[in-house]
Design the sequence.
C-alpha cells in the first residue's frame, strides 16, 4: 500500500482553525481535515462537507428491525408454537409492541455506533499522523489542519505557503 | 426599536364575532329540534376550545418556570389565549343546563337503584359538580389574569423584579394546574360514563391540550406571517422548535393513550373494557382507527425529518391536521355516549364548534391586538429573536 | 425535566468555574485516573468488594437451595427480590435522562455529570438484572427466556410482560453501554496521547480505536451521538413502562391501574437523581471537582427531584382518589389497607420521603445546601425503595380472598442480598472512578466559553471584552 504524506499546521484556537478551514476550502482542497479536541460549531460548512448519511442508514435499519420483530413474534406465537394464553388471540399485536420496539432500538443503536466507526474507518490503530509529536495535542488543547499529499491541489511549496498565510504555525511534513 | 403593534386591527376581530354569533344562533334552532344532540355537540365544542385555553396557560407557566428564552416571542400569544377563561366560564352555562341530558349520574332515580353510583354520589352530584367547576375557572382565571397583567406591566415598566414575580406565581400555579385539569377531565368527560374509571385520564386530557396549543401557535403565527406581521420576529427557527414540540407531544399523547388502552385490553376486566367496546362498536371503529393513524402514526412519521419541520407550508398543514385530530379525539371521548350504535355527525357539531370558536377567537384577538404582539421589555427578547437551532 | 433549567436567565456565572482552559480540563480529569492509587481507595474497595463477595456467596447458596430461603410465602410470591429489581432499574434512569434527554433539550450543564451518571446506570442495571435472573429458580434454564430454536420446538411467550422485561432491560443495558462507550472514545484518545507508560498507551490505544479528532470524524461522531440520544430517550421511557406492566397488566387491586407507566417513569427518574446527587456530592468532595460539579449543577438536579417528586405525589393521589371513585370494593380496600393496614409503616415512610421531603426543595436555601440535600437525597432513595415494597407486598399480601391473606417478612438472605447488591454497585463504581475519566472531557471543553469561535474577536485573537461575557446556556425548555 502506498503511504500517504501529510502536511500539518498548528493553529491557536477554534476561531482561527475555522477561518483557515474556509480559506483552504476556497483554495479548492478536498482532502484535508481539521483536528480539534472537541467538535467545533460551523466547521462542517467551513470545510464544505456534506451531511453525514448515518441518519438515513439507521432509519432504514430501524424500519427493517421493527418489521423483523413483529414477524418473529407473529411466527413464533401463531405458526410455530400456537398456545392459548390468557384467552388472547395468537396474533395479539397489542402485546407485541414492547419487544418489537426493543429489537428496533437495540439494532439501531448497534448500527449507530458501528456505522459511525465504519464511516470513520475506525478502528485504525496506526495512522501516519500519529508519527508527529505535535499531533498528540489535538486530543488535549491543540488545533491542527492536516492536508493529504494526494490532493490534486497539493504542492509542497504552495501548500506550505497557504497554511502559513492562513495563520498556521509549525508547518511540518509527515512521511 | 419596533413597537410590535398592529396597524390593522380588524384582521380577525369582527369576522370571528360574526361567525361566533351566527354559529350559536343557528345552533339554537338545533336545540329546539334535538336538545340532547345539542348538548353533546356543545360539550365537544366547548371542551375542544377549553383545552386550547388550558394549553395556553400551561405554555405560559412552563415558559416562566424554565426561564426558556426561545419561546419569549411567543409568550404574548399564549397569554392572550389563556385570558379567555372568563368567557369560557360564561360559556359553561349551557353545559350546566344540559347536565340532565349529558350526565347519567344526575338522574336520581337511577342512582338510588345503582349501588356503585350511589356510592359515588358524594362526589358525583350536581351541587358539588358546579362548585368544582366554579373553582377550576376561578383558579384558571386568576392565574392567567395575574400573569397577563404582570406581562403588560412589563411592557411599560421593565423591572427585573418581574421575572421573580412571574416565577412565584407560576410554581404553585403549575401544581394547581395539574390538579385542576385532572379533575376537570374526570368531571366533564370521564363521568359521562359514570361507571368507568381510569387513573391516567387526566394526563390524557392534558396531552391533548398540549397538542392543541402547539398546533394553534403554529397556525396562528403563520397566519400573521402571511400578512407580513412578526415575520422577522417569529422565525423559521421558532417554527422548527414548535414543530419539535409538536412531534414530542404527539409521542407523549400516543404513549399515554396507548398505556390506557393497553392495560385495559390486557387485564380484560369488563367494567373497564366496555369503554373501548363502545368505541369499537359499528362505525365507531372507523373513528378509532382514524385516531390511531391520524392522531399518532401519521404525524409521528411526517414530523420526524428535520426538513419537514422547517418547511413552513408543510408544518402549517401538519398543525392544522393535528388541530383537527384533537377535535376528533374529543368527539371520540364524548359522542359514543350518545350514539352507541355508530357515529353520526350532526350539523350542530360544526356550528357549535364554529360558534364557540368564533367567540373565543374574537376575545383572543381583542386581548392580543390591544397590546404589543410580543413582550417588548422581556430581557431575553433579543436572544429569543436571534435564536437558532444548531 | 424542563423545569430543570430554572433560573437560567439570571445565571451569569459560567457553567464551569475556576477559569479552566482546555489543557487544565484534560489535566484535572485525566490525572485522577493516572495518579497513584490513593490509600482510601483500597480501603473503600476492600469494604465494598467483601460485601460483593458476600452477595456472590448468597447467590450461590440460593442457586443451591432454591428460593425457599427467601421469605416468600403464599400469597406473597414476589418479595424483596422484585422490589430490589425495580429499585435498581429505576436508579438507572437518571443516567440516561442526563445523557440523552438533557442532550436533546440542549442542557449544557449535563456535560459535567453525564459520564458518571451513565456509569451509574450501567452498574445499577447490572444489579437489577441479577434479581429476576436468580428468581427464576432453575437458573440454568434461563436461556428459555430468549427466542432460541430448541429441540422441543418451544418459543417464549411474547404476550407475557415478564418476557418484555427481558427484552426491555436487556436492550436498556446494551444501549446504555454503547452510548457510554461512544462518549468515551475521544476521552480515551486524550488519555492515550498523554500516556507515559507503554502498557497504558497500548490499552488506551486499543480502546480509543485510533481516534484522530478530525472534523471528518467528528461529523459522523456527533450524528451518532445524537442518534443514540434519540434512541435512548424513548427507550428509557419504555423500560420503566414495561416494568410497570409487570404489575399493571394483572388484575390485582393496587397493581392494575392505568397511570402506572408514566408514574413509574417519573418515580424512576426521581430515585435516579437522588442517587446521582448522592454520588456526585461524594465524588466532588473526594476528588476536588467543585469547579466542574458546581452548586448550580446540584441545584438543578434538586429541581428535577422536586418536579418528579411532585409527579409521584400526583400519581399517589390520583390512585387513591380513583380507588374510591371506582366504587370497586377491592380497590378501595387495598388503598385503605396500605394506609392503615399492617404495612402502614411502609406506606407512610414512602409518602414522607417521596412526597413531603422533596417539597423542601422549593426553598433556595435547601436546594443549595450540600449537607441538607445529601440527607434529602438519601431519604428519597429510602422512600423509593419503600414505594416498590408497598406496591409489591401490600397488594399481594391481602388480595381478594381473606382466607388467603398472609403477612410477609424477609429472611436474613433477603436482607443480605439487598445489602450485597450495594457492594456490587460500589465495587463497580470504584473501579470506574479509578480507571476511567469520570467527567466527559471533550464535552466539557466544548461548553467552555472559549470553545465557541464567536468568542474571539474578528482577527482571531482573544477579545478581552468577550472574556467577561458569561456562558449562556442553551436556554431552551
Sequence:
Amino acid at each position: 500500500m502506498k503511504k500517504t504524506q501529510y502536511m500539518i499546521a498548528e493553529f491557536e484556537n477554534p476561531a482561527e482553525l475555522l477561518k483557515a478551514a474556509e480559506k483552504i476550502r476556497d483554495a479548492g482542497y478536498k482532502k484535508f481535515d481539521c483536528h480539534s479536541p472537541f467538535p467545533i460549531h460551523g466547521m462542517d460548512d467551513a470545510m464544505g462537507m456534506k451531511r453525514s448519511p448515518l441518519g438515513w442508514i439507521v432509519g432504514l435499519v430501524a424500519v427493517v428491525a421493527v418489521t423483523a420483530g413483529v414477524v418473529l413474534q407473529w411466527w413464533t406465537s401463531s405458526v410455530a408454537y400456537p398456545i392459548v394464553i390468557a384467552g388472547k388471540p395468537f396474533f395479539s399485536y397489542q402485546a407485541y409492541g414492547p419487544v418489537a420496539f426493543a429489537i428496533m432500538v437495540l439494532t439501531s443503536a448497534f448500527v449507530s455506533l458501528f456505522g459511525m466507526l465504519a464511516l470513520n474507518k475506525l478502528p485504525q490503530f496506526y495512522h501516519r499522523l500519529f508519527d508527529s509529536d505535535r499531533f498528540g495535542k489535538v486530543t488535549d488543547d491543540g488545533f491542527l489542519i492536516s492536508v493529504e499529499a494526494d490532493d490534486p491541489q497539493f504542492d509542497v511549496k504552495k501548500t506550505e505557503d497557504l497554511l502559513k498565510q492562513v495563520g498556521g504555525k509549525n508547518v511540518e511534513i509527515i512521511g | 426599536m419596533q413597537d410590535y403593534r398592529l396597524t390593522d386591527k380588524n384582521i380577525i376581530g369582527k369576522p370571528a364575532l360574526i361567525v361566533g354569533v351566527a354559529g350559536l344562533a343557528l345552533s339554537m334552532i338545533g336545540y329546539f329540534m334535538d336538545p340532547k344532540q345539542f348538548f353533546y355537540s356543545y360539550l365537544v365544542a366547548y371542551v375542544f376550545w377549553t383545552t386550547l385555553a388550558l394549553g395556553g396557560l400551561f405554555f405560559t407557566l412552563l415558559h416562566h418556570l424554565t426561564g426558556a428564552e426561545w419561546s419569549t416571542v411567543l409568550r404574548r400569544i399564549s397569554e392572550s389565549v389563556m385570558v379567555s377563561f372568563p368567557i369560557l366560564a360564561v360559556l359553561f352555562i349551557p353545559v350546566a343546563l344540559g347536565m340532565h341530558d349529558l350526565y347519567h349520574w344526575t338522574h336520581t332515580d337511577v342512582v338510588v337503584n345503582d349501588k356503585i353510583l350511589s356510592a359515588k354520589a358524594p362526589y358525583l352530584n350536581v351541587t358539588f359538580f358546579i362548585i368544582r367547576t366554579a373553582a377550576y375557572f376561578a383558579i384558571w382565571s386568576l392565574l392567567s389574569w395575574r400573569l397577563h397583567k404582570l406581562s403588560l406591566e412589563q411592557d411599560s415598566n421593565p423591572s427585573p423584579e418581574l421575572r421573580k414575580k412571574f416565577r412565584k406565581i407560576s410554581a404553585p400555579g403549575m401544581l394547581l394546574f395539574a390538579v385542576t385539569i385532572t379533575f376537570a377531565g374526570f368531571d366533564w368527560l370521564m363521568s359521562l360514563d359514570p361507571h368507568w374509571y381510569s387513573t391516567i385520564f387526566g394526563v390524557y386530557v392534558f396531552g391533548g391540550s398540549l397538542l392543541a396549543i402547539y398546533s394553534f401557535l403554529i397556525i396562528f403565527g403563520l397566519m400573521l406571517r402571511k400578512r407580513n406581521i412578526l415575520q422577522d420576529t417569529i422565525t423559521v427557527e421558532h417554527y422548527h422548535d414548535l414543530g419539535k414540540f409538536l412531534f414530542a407531544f404527539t409521542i407523549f399523547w400516543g404513549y399515554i393513550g396507548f398505556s390506557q388502552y393497553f392495560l385495559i385490553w390486557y387485564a380484560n376486566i369488563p367494567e373497564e373494557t366496555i369503554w373501548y367496546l363502545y368505541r369499537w362498536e359499528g362505525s365507531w371503529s372507523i373513528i378509532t382507527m382514524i385516531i390511531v393513524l391520524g392522531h399518532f402514526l401519521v404525524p409521528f412519521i411526517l414530523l420526524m425529518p428535520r426538513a419537514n419541520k422547517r418547511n413552513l407550508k408543510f408544518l402549517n398543514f401538519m398543525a392544522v391536521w393535528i388541530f383537527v385530530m384533537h377535535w376528533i379525539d374529543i368527539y371520540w371521548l364524548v359522542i359514543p355516549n350518545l350514539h352507541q350504535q355508530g357515529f353520526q355527525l350532526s350539523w350542530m357539531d360544526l356550528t357549535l364548534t364554529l360558534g364557540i370558536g368564533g367567540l373565543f377567537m374574537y376575545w383572543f384577538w381583542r386581548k392580543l391586538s390591544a397590546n404589543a404582539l410580543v413582550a417588548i421589555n422581556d430581557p431575553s427578547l433579543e436572544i429569543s429573536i436571534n435564536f437558532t437551532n444548531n | 425535566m424542563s423545569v430543570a433549567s430554572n433560573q437560567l436567565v439570571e445565571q451569569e456565572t459560567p457553567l464551569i468555574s475556576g477559569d479552566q482552559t482546555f489543557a487544565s480540563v484534560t489535566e484535572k480529569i485525566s490525572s485522577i485516573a493516572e495518579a497513584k492509587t490513593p490509600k482510601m481507595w483500597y480501603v473503600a474497595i476492600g469494604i465494598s468488594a467483601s460485601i460483593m463477595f458476600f452477595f456472590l456467596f448468597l447467590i450461590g447458596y440460593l442457586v443451591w437451595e432454591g428460593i425457599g430461603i427467601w421469605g416468600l410465602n403464599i400469597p406473597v410470591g414476589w418479595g424483596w427480590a422484585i422490589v430490589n429489581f425495580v429499585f435498581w432499574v429505576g436508579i438507572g434512569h437518571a443516567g440516561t435522562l442526563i445523557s440523552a434527554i438533557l442532550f436533546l433539550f440542549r442542557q449544557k450543564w449535563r456535560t459535567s455529570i453525564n459520564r458518571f451518571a451513565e456509569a451509574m446506570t450501567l452498574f445499577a442495571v447490572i444489579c437489577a438484572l441479577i434479581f429476576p435472573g436468580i428468581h427464576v429458580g432453575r437458573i440454568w434454564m434461563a436461556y428459555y427466556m430468549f427466542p432460541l430454536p430448541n429441540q422441543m420446538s418451544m418459543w417464549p411467550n411474547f404476550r407475557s410482560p415478564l418476557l418484555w422485561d427481558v427484552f426491555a432491560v436487556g436492550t436498556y443495558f446494551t444501549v446504555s453501554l454503547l452510548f457510554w462507550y461512544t462518549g468515551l472514545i475521544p476521552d480515551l484518545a486524550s488519555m492515550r496521547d498523554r500516556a507515559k507508560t507503554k502498557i497504558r498507551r497500548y490499552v488506551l490505544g486499543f480502546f480509543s480505536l485510533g481516534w484522530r479528532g478530525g472534523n471528518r470524524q467528528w461529523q459522523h461522531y456527533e450524528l451518532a451521538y445524537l442518534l443514540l440520544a434519540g434512541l435512548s430517550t424513548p427507550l428509557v421511557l419504555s423500560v420503566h413502562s414495561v416494568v410497570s406492566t409487570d404489575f399493571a397488566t394483572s388484575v390485582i387491586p393496587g397493581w392494575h391501574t392505568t397511570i402506572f407507566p408514566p408514574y413509574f417513569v417519573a418515580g424512576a427518574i426521581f430515585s435516579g437523581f437522588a442517587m446521582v446527587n448522592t454520588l456526585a456530592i461524594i465524588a466532588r468532595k473526594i476528588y476536588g471537582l467543585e469547579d466542574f460539579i458546581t452548586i448550580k449543577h446540584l441545584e438543578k438536579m434538586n429541581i428535577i427531584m422536586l418536579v418528579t417528586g411532585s409527579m409521584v405525589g400526583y400519581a399517589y393521589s390520583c390512585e387513591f382518589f380513583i380507588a374510591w371513585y371506582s366504587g370497586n370494593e377491592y380497590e378501595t380496600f387495598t388503598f385503605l389497607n396500605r394506609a392503615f393496614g399492617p404495612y402502614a409503616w411502609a406506606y407512610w415512610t414512602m409518602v414522607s420521603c417521596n412526597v413531603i421531603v422533596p417539597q423542601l426543595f422549593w426553598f433556595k436555601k435547601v436546594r443549595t445546601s450540600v449537607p441538607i440535600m445529601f440527607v434529602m437525597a438519601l431519604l428519597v432513595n429510602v422512600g423509593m425503595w419503600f414505594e416498590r415494597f408497598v406496591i409489591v407486598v401490600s397488594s399481594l399480601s391481602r388480595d381478594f380472598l381473606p382466607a388467603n391473606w398472609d403477612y410477609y417478612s424477609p429472611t436474613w438472605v433477603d436482607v443480605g442480598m439487598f445489602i450485597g447488591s450495594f457492594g456490587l454497585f460500589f465495587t463497580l463504581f470504584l473501579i470506574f472512578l479509578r480507571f476511567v475519566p469520570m467527567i466527559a472531557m471533550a464535552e466539557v471543553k466544548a461548553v467552555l466559553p472559549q470553545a465557541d469561535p464567536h468568542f474571539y474577536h474578528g482577527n482571531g485573537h482573544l477579545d478581552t471584552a468577550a472574556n467577561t461575557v458569561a456562558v449562556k446556556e442553551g436556554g431552551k425548555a
Remarks:
- Chain B has one domain: 14-385.
- Residues 35-66 of chain B form the longest helix (32 residues).
- Residues 14-385 of chain B form one domain.
- Residues 11 and 365 of chain B are 9 Å apart (CA to CA).
